[in-house]
Every structure is written in structure tokens, then in C-alpha cells.
Amino acid sequence: RIKSGLPGAIDRVEALGAKYKLAMSDLITSCPAKGKDWEGFDWNKYEADVKNLVAQVGDRASTVIWEPVNEPDCIPKPIEKYYELYGHAFKALRETNKDRQICGPGFGFPSYEKYVPFLNYCRDNNLECNYLSWHYTGWEADQPEKTQWRLGQMRDFLKLYPEQKIK
What we know:
By secondary structure, the chain is an alpha/beta fold. The protein has 6 helices and 4 strands; from the N terminus they run H-E-H-E-H-E-H-E-H-H. The chain has helices spanning 5-15, 43-57, 79-96, 112-124, 143-146, 156-160; strands spanning 21-23, 65-67, 101-107, 131-134. The protein has a 4-stranded parallel sheet with strand order 1-2-3-4, with helices on one face. Strand 2, helix 3 and strand 3 form a beta-alpha-beta unit. Helix 2 (43-57) packs across helix 3 (79-96). It starts with a helix and ends in a 7-residue tail after the last helix.
């Protein structure tokens, strides 16, 4: 942990020339992705917790990429539950600022095909997804294409989903 807290961590990452992507589920204890029951979940409390986290980050919140859940494909629930959580996170983030940047699922096991239903859900529910991410470490550089994850085709989403404003 960085002694200066979250704003200090953001400063440190940005000083290196990168954008800070905050995995909200790591800091919001009410997040149902943390093993809590999704049925009858208090979405109002979750949205308030999202807004509180934004307030905690303060002025730096506008430079952060907000990711509701890290590796939602590793949670033992149907992925559609994550879509619902994403919708509530999006709503709360945009209520704090209409330009808040939000990241779609940071899949642990990514593929082009996994992002399509998510982006369709966003389009069908008037949500934006400004960034897409995935985890890829420790393998040879061409492994994703060898395994046919089709990550090289992710740029197609810029044309296929212009309303998402993907960067």
C-alpha cells in the first residue's frame, strides 16, 4: 500500500505516464461479487458506496478509469449478474459526473466472444463502456492469438459499438 493513500497511488501511476484503473470491487465491501448473495441485494447501498469511493478519491476521480469488478468471469455466478452490477456502477458513477470513465470486464480468461454479449447488454440498456481490459501476464506474446482469443480483433468494437465511446 502507498502511505499517501489512493490519491497518492493515482499520482504515482500517472507520473509514470499511465492511467490509473481502479478495481472498485477491491475497495467496496458491499459489492456482491465479494461472495455476497445477489438475490435481494441492496443496490441503493451499493450505489451509495460507489459514490462514497468517488468522493474518497476526490479531485483525482476524473482521471481514473473505474472498473466495477476485477475478473468477473472468475466469480461463481452467471456473467449476467455482473452485467447488472455494471449497470448500477455506471449509474452511480455518472451521477457523480457525466464524464466519468468506466471500464468493462477485466476478464481473467479473455476472448473476443466474451465481450460481445457484454457490449450488446450495454447498448440495449443505454450504458457506456469506455474501456475494455483483460489480464495477460507471463505468457509468450503471441499466445492470445494462438489460443484463438481473437483479442487482435478488439479494435473492431470501435466501429461496431460507437455509442460506447471506447478509447
